[in-house]
Amino acid sequence: MSGLSVRNVTHRYGPRTALDAVSFDVAPGRFCALLGPNGAGKSTLFALLTGLLAAPPGTIAVAGHDIRREPTRALARMGVVFQAPTLDLDLTVAQNLRYFAALQGLSDRIAAGRIDRALHRLGMAERAGERARALNGGHRRRTEIARALIHEPAVLLLDEPTVGLDAAARAAITDHVHGLAREDGLTVLWATHLTDEVRPEDDLVILHKGRVLRHATAGAVARGAPLTEVFLGLTGEAA
Ligand code: ADP
User: Fold this and answer.
1) Tens digits of residue pLDDT in 9-47
2) How many CA atoms lie within 13 A of 174 on its CB side?
């Protein structure tokens, strides 16, 4: 399985079980929405996937690399956009990406080509020379997504990437990332608590209290009903 594979993953914080035998796969080129209300376990799963928390019971594989047996290879194939903003606001858009490329050990020539491509991909090319501080929230987020592509990952993880953005910026970012899956073949895991970011053809994992309640395409989960209603009915919480 060359996308993302999560098998029987459990995590406890002391007596509290945050994830309880969570299993799902995301195939290459698929956009998978990880949908769950606050406290569902989304951030915990991201922390496990990205190695912030120690490898859990169960198995996680990124592009075929088990994170316990081959952590360096697994992490190298992963692009991550964390919930908290991480740009250096005093640097320009291009400088932020160049800095990341240098950390990855890329030559200036290779970095320049990849930065150019990533910024074009996210519709940010004309802002390359602007300071991050001058950008609105949506453009900052797009810069972070572009940066997450520089090392050419196979799997892109985004933890509630639209939090705090207005409707237009949310829609633009959601569109861009769907395009990355559909057109560039990236495997995308997109954590959210907002049903309107999920499209019928997307894979959908509904997580609630650390358990997977549903895993199918969003269309198959909703079966003609509004997804918000289905989600509310399953979790008993406002979407
Ligand atoms: P989500 O990202 O879906 O909101 P989290 O992964 O943050 O969910 O939380 C899952 C559960 O684990 C919640 O019950 C939360 O209170 C608990 N939790 C999260 N982080 C910690 C922590 N550092 N210590 C103890 N409990 C935690």
Assistant:
1) 999 999 999 999 999 999 999 999 999 999 999 999 999
2) 21
